Amino acid sequence: MKWVTYSPLLLGLCWPVASLAQDENGLPEMSVVKALEAPERPSFSECAAYFFLAARGHPAPLYDGFYSAGEFSLNAAVLLHGAQPANHAMEEASAKMMTEIKQDWQNIAVLVRNHAPSCEALLRDAEFVAPH
User: Which residues span the domain enclosing 47?
Assistant: First the structure.
């Protein structure tokens, strides 16, 4: 089995962080979400695809952190764009990412390298609180 080296940021998704601007459902305040999606950054839908795929491609101890990050990202995308457009964008991003790894989970490091830094930054800026 091939082992993946994890960045400190990637592992940080599994640790709780402080949050300043979340609503009662644990989602970022709409004003925070609107300010975060920008052309030079990945969208919340793209990051949802990354985190859900990463959850499936990493060992079980990391699953909850990645999956929660995916849920958070998708919920933020739904707040911004509506359920159908957010889900459609996530499905398209997921298909592209599966092509990136050539449909082979042993290539998950490719997704980590290409998507983890920008998606982790997006969630950090959205004040995502990982489960503990």
Answer: 42-132
